[in-house]
Amino acid sequence: MKEAKTASDLMRVIESKNEYYAAFLTKICEIESKSDNKAGVDRVCDAVLEEGRKLGFSERLFPHPAAGNVASLTYDPGSKKRIICLSAHMDTVFPEGTFGYPAVKRDGDILRGPGVMDCKGGIAVALLVMDALRTIGYRKRPVRFILQSEEEIQCLMSSGATLDFLREEAKDSAAFFNLEGREKGKITTRRKGILRAEMTVHGKAAHAGDYFEGVSAIRAAARKIIRLEEKSIRDGITYNCGIIEGGTALNVIPDKCVVRIDIRVGTQSEANEALTFLRSVADHCDLPGSSAEVRIISSRKPMERTEQNVELFRHVDRVCRKYGFGPMTENFSNGGSDAAYSTLMGIPTIDDIGVIGDNYHSLNEWCSISSIAESAKIIALSILDFPESDEWLSEEGKNETH
Ligand SMILES: [Zn+2]
Fold first, then answer.
1. Which of 21, 319, 338, 396 could cysteine-pair with 124, CB 3.0–4.6 Å?
2. How far apart are CA 292 and CA 282, in angstroms?
3. Does one domain contain both 280 and 254?
4. Do 95 and 185 share a structural domain?
5. Do residues 381 and 369 share a domain?
6. Distance 150 CA to ligand 1 centre (A)
7. Distance CA 258, CA 245 (A)
8. pLDDT tens digits for 299-351?
9. Are residue 174 and residue 268 in the same domain, yes or no?
10. CATH (domain of 121)
11. Are residues 174 and 306 in the same domain?
């Protein structure tokens, strides 16, 4: 009985605070914060930390000279148990002014604007979860919210330093919830990794009138592009040669062609396989006199579908069924995210559990305002019902496989 009352108190508190966090979400989405706009990202970070201070959470700030600052907020009720982590990012993909002014518009339950779903809605949900747990006097485990500043550009500006902060803050935690936007009824347990590379193909310049004296780098590149893209497999490794630059004039045989490639992989072994294949395509001489080299631009590890991730998914699914939000199905996403790093650390991780919305990275990005509370309830109840034992995952995993 007492347990049921605590759960209903928690849901009531969350519902009562939904409008407050909708207003907060509007406020942080009005602050433009494209990944390379340090001043903007820092202002979002300040606004979140200010909320955390009002609630009495402890904070850790990691300032960076080039990238946006990163930070964490911790609600520590004095428990010695392993912490539960929530995570979201503050940067967006939009240049300033893309959405006009004001940038955020509300239409009934729908909020439109830069980052409302990806991923500032997740920031509002995370704060609401911690606020509500504190309000009802939850004391079982510390809960920590980690803020990332350059998720959209794979931490290029800090050369991974902001990611090191995330790893440090998430270390030894019992669970990791990444609050990218969600689709109703789905939770992500696996995401593809992304490898970005640049292949430069060299040929020999000549006048078009002396065609057979030259070696066309574009012709050699075209063969390589086809060899790469034909290797793409649905639900497997995919190669997209999205940008091509080559040639200087119509009457010149081109001596250089640059191809930029986005490769998606499901596992680390697929990443190794893709890199080996890319190198072999570059090394293969498609046209006598031509050559090519490959440079890796960036790489984001895949979030593999580990046993721990599936076990955390099952826990949240059970909670959703119990309180009327379920059932949930497992989602496999082709996009990358920070959830890959906590998965790699062996932490039970699920992703895409922020606000419900769609069309992120586009002018039609939207989220549902009432889903701030709905997602907060799912996460807060999952924390409330979290197994006492820190070893629950391995124990339950053993039982279910036998
Ligand atoms: Zn995102």
1. 21
2. 5
3. yes
4. yes
5. yes
6. 10
7. 5
8. 889 999 999 999 999 999 999 999 999 899 999 998 888 999 999 999 999 99
9. no
10. 3.40.630.10
11. yes
Calculate how far, in angstroms, residue 61's C-alpha sits from the geometric centre of ligand 1.
Answer: 21
In whole angstroms, give the CA distance from residue 397 to residue 25. 38
pTM score: 0.88
Calculate how far, in angstroms, residue 180's C-alpha sits from the geometric centre of ligand 1: 5
Which residue stretches of the chain have pLDDT < 50? Answer: 395-402
117 Cα: distance to centroid of ligand 1 (angstroms) = 8
**Into how many domains does the chain fold?**
2
Distance between Cα 260 and ligand 1 center (Å) = 22
Structure tokens at 259: 């191809």
What is the CA(307)–ligand 1 centre distance, in A? 24
| d(CA 337, ligand 1 centre) in Å | 7
What's the gap between Cα 228 and its chain centre? 26
The answer to whether residues 212 and 265 belong to one domain is yes
312 CA from centroid of ligand 1 (Å): 21
CA–centroid distance, 193 to ligand 1, in Å, is: 14
Helix, strand, coil percent content, the chain, rounded in steps of 5: 40, 25, 35
Q: How far is the CA of 211 from the centre of ligand 1 (A)?
A: 49
Cα of 338 from ligand 1 centre, angstroms = 9
**Alpha-carbon separation of residue 148 from 12, 41, 154, 171, 343 (angstroms):** 30, 10, 10, 15, 16
- Are residues 157 and 167 part of one domain? yes
Residues surrounding ion ligand 1 at CB below 5 Å: 118-119, 180
What is the structure's pLDDT at 399?
43
Residues 146 and 60 in one domain: yes
What spacing in Å lies between the alpha carbon of 14 and ligand 1's midpoint? 24
